[in-house]
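WARN retry 2 of 3 for item q-0093 after timeout on previous attempt; input resubmitted unchanged.
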Amino acid sequence: MSLNKVMLIGNVGKDPEVRYLDGNNPNAGSTKVATFTLATTERYRDRNGELRESTEWHNIVAWRNSADVAEKYIRKGTQIYVEGKLRTRSWTDQSGAKRYTTEINADSLQLLGKRSDNPAQEGAPAPQQNWQNQQGQSRPAAQSWQNPQPAAPVSQPAAPAAPADDMPQDDLPF
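OK item q-0093 returned
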């Protein structure tokens, strides 16, 4: 058994670059791919107690419907959740040297943060509730950047009060 799964929450480093595999004609029915970078930052205290920050940059590749979402809604600075697979590919550059790169092949993208944090959202219609990954599987998208409707209060019966002698404070396991 094996598992190749990556889950990241971070900020987009640059606007997505969108390409079509069969040229630049979106009407030709060619496959769309979007690439962009994502920064994840870890904050910790060093041995001297000083706050340190470590930022890791990830190359994200989104295909087909996920590329549509990236093109329409993702801009530099947008906070997103990415779920996908780790892929390493190699090629030979012009000088004949073998080169490698590691990318996250996105299965799903979800916008996070407030709608006002993303300049691409100004005046744009809200995205569909479900975005599909490249295999056509539907996944619900987080819509936390939209103003959620307050839920109606649900009345629940009050729990009966336990007698004071049944649960003394000294007997708690923690």
